[in-house]
Specification:
By secondary structure, this protein is α/β, with parallel strands linked by helices. The chain is 49% helix and 12% strand. The protein is built from 11 helices and 9 strands. The strands form 2 sheets. Strands 3-2-1-4-5-6 form a 6-stranded parallel beta sheet. The chain has a 3-stranded mixed beta sheet with strand order 7-8-9, covered by helices on one side. The chain starts with 7 loop residues before the first strand and ends in a 5-residue tail after the last helix.
Length: 285
């Protein structure tokens, strides 16, 4: 479906990710509309020619004309939107999302969604430490990963369309996982790393350290500038997996601490060599 530029795309939630989607897709000539809270966001996006039209209200025409609807909302807001407003979607509409957790929303939405519409979930593994449509850029998708998380309720056409969407957006790696596999993976690769950055940033409040720090501390705590409203919701939604990952990290950190306490230089060096070898696999090619 997505290859046909006559299809209309609606983005619900015109923030950093929603705006970046709009910028990337507008290059291909799609008709892009948006619904978001702030009129200033709509005005900015129209001025920058990121969208063709937009509204801060539930414009029935805009919603009803959309062939593909991309939801860039907090998880609980997304669920509530579908519960209250899905009657506005056209028959045959395909919807997708950018949500960072899947198990808690995918099955619920698919269960309550009208049978003549389809939800194919996805997660763009990309972001920045800023927010708002004015900071949007399609460049953050380059070299990044895009994960589609289908269920047995999804059609092959919807899965293929969502994967093609990821490629059009510019993602370098487009893959599929089940919602359960996704949440396990994301608990380690994303949520745990944010927990570590938060803890590191708040465990020592000594004044003026920012005057003496090097790049290593800046790099390690880059994601500590965090949207507390969104990330606290994501943490709780994936609580069981995240706690397991936190325990795993604490145990491994304890091993390193024990090596240091006992002057086990060989053990530390072996752990460092293993770390270096593993890190090579994560370098963007």
């Amino acid at each position: 479906m997505i290859v046909n530029v006559s299809k209309k795309i609606l983005i619900v939630g015109l923030g950093l990710l929603g705006g970046s989607y709009a910028k990337a897709l507008k290059r291909f000539g799609f008709h892009i509309s948006a619904i978001t809270k702030e009129q200033s966001s709509i005005d900015y996006a129209i001025k920058e020619k990121m969208i063709d039209e937009g509204s801060t209200t539930l414009d029935e025409r805009i919603i009803g004309e959309a062939d593909l609807v991309i939801f860039a909302l907090y998880p609980h807001v997304f669920v509530e939107w579908i519960k209250e407003n899905q009657h506005l979607l056209k028959s045959g509409a395909l919807i997708t999302d950018v949500t960072g957790v899947k198990r808690n929303i995918v099955y619920e939405i698919q269960d309550i969604l009208r049978p003549d519409a389809e939800f194919i979930p996805a997660h763009p593994m990309a972001g920045r430490e800023v927010s708002g449509v004015e900071n949007s850029t399609e460049k953050m998708f380059i070299g990044a990963n895009y994960i589609v998380t289908p269920t047995e309720k999804n059609t092959p056409e919807a899965i293929n369309t969502c994967m093609e969407l990821g490629r059009l957006l510019g993602f370098s790696n487009v893959t599929t996982l089940s919602p359960e596999e996704h949440d396990e993976m994301i608990g380690f690769l994303s949520q745990l790393t944010h927990c570590i950055a938060i803890t590191l940033m708040t465990c020592n409040d000594k004044e003026d350290m920012e005057k003496f720090t090097g790049d290593s501390f800046r790099d390690l705590t880059r994601i500590a500038r965090i949207n507390d409203l969104m990330w606290s919701e994501l943490f709780v939604a994936n609580k069981d997996v995240l706690i397991e990952q936190m325990d795993m990290f604490i145990n491994k950190f304890g091993e390193l601490k024990s090596m240091l306490e006992t002057d086990d230089i060989d053990g530390m060096r072996e752990m460092m060599r293993h770390s270096s070898k593993r890190r090579e696999l994560f370098d963007k090619k």
